[in-house]
Specification:
single chain, about 240 residues, alpha+beta, 4-stranded antiparallel beta sheet, about 25% helix
Length: about 240
């Protein structure tokens, strides 16, 4: 009988101990689920909202006419952007919204493009790119040689190409001297050199104009180009 009672008491002690362990586990899980995890999640979210920087991607399109090109800006960040400032060589550029997070504009000049994005949390990101697909330089003279009174040189323009019909020369006696020959396949041009110096004028296919003066030794002593847009502005003024 005593042995039976001792067994009952032992079983009761084990049951009470097991209940205490279960209660301890349940209390730990409750603290973890209802206090610790929400604390970590809320503070992590606050940290993300406070420190998240805006992200963007710039795409410069190709130019078919070498006069203008397109620029597209895509906002890559999740948080909304408060303001967008775009400049080309420091001059402000107006953007047009074309999608939920997409903006675009037309560029007519080469230069350094800079985009400043400011998020609603006042965090700032500056991204940039180089615009160099437009033709804003005139043709260049290369390999100029004078032999037996004949000036020979090559004209090169790597973008819109040389407008060979625009090539003329001038000296102190004649302001409109036509070339002796033009080889369009090589860009080789020849002139008869009658005076000490010969001034050469040539344009590319969008109007950038070259002005150069060649000496009897074949040296280019003056070489300056006028972009088409600048020439028009000077004429209008």
């Amino acid at each position: 009988m005593n042995q039976y009672n001792n067994q009952i008491r032992a079983n009761r002690r084990k049951t009470r101990s097991g209940n205490r362990n279960d209660a301890g586990k349940n209390g730990f899980l409750s603290v973890l689920l209802f206090y610790v995890l929400p604390f970590i999640i809320v503070n992590g979210l606050i940290f993300f909202l406070v420190t998240s920087k805006p992200k963007g991607e710039i795409t410069i399109g190709e130019s078919s006419d070498y006069i203008s090109t397109t620029m597209e800006l895509k906002i890559k960040s999740l948080l909304p952007v408060k303001s967008i400032e775009v400049t080309l060589d420091g001059a402000p550029i107006e953007m047009t919204k074309t999608g939920l997070k997409t903006y675009s504009t037309v560029l007519k000049n080469n230069g350094v493009l800079e985009v400043k994005l400011i998020c609603f949390n006042k965090m700032k990101t500056v991204i940039g790119d180089q615009v160099d697909v437009l033709d804003d330089t005139p043709p260049v003279i290369k390999d100029s040689v004078v032999e037996n009174g004949i000036l020979s040189f090559r004209l090169e323009d790597s973008q819109s190409g040389v407008d060979y019909s625009s090539i003329t020369g001038s000296d102190e006696d004649n302001q409109n001297i036509a070339p002796l020959s033009i080889d369009r396949s090589t860009g080789r041009v020849t002139f008869e050199l009658k005076k000490d110096n010969l001034s050469i004028t040539a344009k590319d296919n969008i109007g950038n104009e070259l002005h150069a003066t060649i000496t009897p030794q074949g040296e280019n002593i003056e070489d300056e180009g006028t972009p088409d847009g600048q020439a028009e502005d000077q004429t209008e003024s």
